[in-house]
Amino acid sequence: MSTEKIAEQTRFAYWVPNVSGGLVTSDIEQRTSWDFEYNKKLARTAENNGFEYALSQVRYTASYGAEYQHESTSFSLALLGATERLKVIAAIHPGLWHPAVLAKFGATADHLSNGRFAINVVSGWFAGEFKALGEPWLEHDERYRRSAEFLEVIRKIWTEDAVEYGGDFYRIRDFTLKPKPLNTPERPNPELFQGGNSTAARRNGGRFADWYFSNGKDFDGVTEQLDDLRAVARAHDREVKFGLNAFIIARDTEKEAREVLREIVAKANKPAVEGFRDAVQQAGASTGDRKGMWADSTFEDLVQYNDGFRSELIGTPEQIAERIVAYRDRGVDLILGGFLHFQEEIEYFGQRVLPLVRELEAQRRPAAAVAG
Q1: Kind and range of the H or E element at 18?
Q2: Considering only CA atoms, which of 261, 366, 361 is closest in space to residue 310?
Q3: What is the H or E stretch that residue 72 is in?
Q4: What is the per-residue pLDDT across 237-274, written as a single tens digit (0 to 9) for each?
Q5: Helix (H) or strand (E) holding 356
Q6: Helical H runs in 7-60?
Q7: Between 317-329 and 354-371, two packed helices, what is the crossing angle to 10 degrees?
Q8: On the CB side of 82, how many CA atoms lie within 13 Å of its CA?
Q9: pLDDT tens for each residue of 267-283
Q10: Environment class of residue 17 by beta-carbon count within 10 Å: exposed (0-12), middle (13-18) or buried (19+)?
Q11: Of 177, 183, 2, 21, nearest in space to 100 by CA
């Protein structure tokens, strides 16, 4: 169990399907679309069904079942304009963005959305994409060193004037951004998310991010990551919140939910999954302790390309709610959900699963208060 304070309530985010092919690389029917009109309606549905965050994906070159995609920052801004409360997180790649340029975009987006813009720093896994664009492809830990500087620089620019920074990747001289984002004591800068699984990712999350995003994990995997992450954070007098990826299959019966999973895997697009596996598994294998993303992912895991089946949020509303609260008890602050049919399944989740989660959390709260 986590030794850090446990959030009173689990927060929920969803993957924005701004990339074609849905959230599973399978020929199963997915009643989901990457176009803006679908996503605008979906964002409004999500914020009215208990979802606080949405994460826009980033892919630049057509590949691996994601032939079409909308760029993440502009798409996020459009979704912010179409909603009232939803916080939208744009995934970005250091190496393809300069932190000061993104800081300027982010400050504007924050003003336009009344403080609802955030970023997820993705250190990069797709070597072919960088090479196709003529950009240097760094080794694993060097990519995370660059991301660490990126996180440091963007926070400084968002919160300080006359910024000076001399790093190995970024050098800033007397730079002032105005207007700053809509910073408040509760949110001193737009939220910074760091994604990854590796030791380098945990180090970055503990030292520089507000949130750490993990690929799908079971209870033991979550505990192992949280122990590392929070040890780093404590050493730097910080606290970091933890988000867990999960592909959610909620159905009236467990048999029905398991049959959906079986069909997804049975109809997997094998060439696309294998192409993705060839591109990504070097990322985890290239780390000395083999803790990187996808280092031990099976073919079935990679059908949902962020290991979302591993979190096991598959079954009846009651089963899923109990598992979500068990994750919260271990220190998970946020569940990042993917779905097969986004529109109807987010509605189902909000109506059938989320109320059960809140009931279970309320039941645990008095016991937690007494223990504290």
Answers
A1: none
A2: 261
A3: helix 72-82
A4: 999 999 999 999 999 999 999 999 999 999 998 888 88
A5: helix 354-371
A6: 36-47
A7: 30
A8: 21
A9: 998 888 887 777 666 65
A10: buried
A11: 177
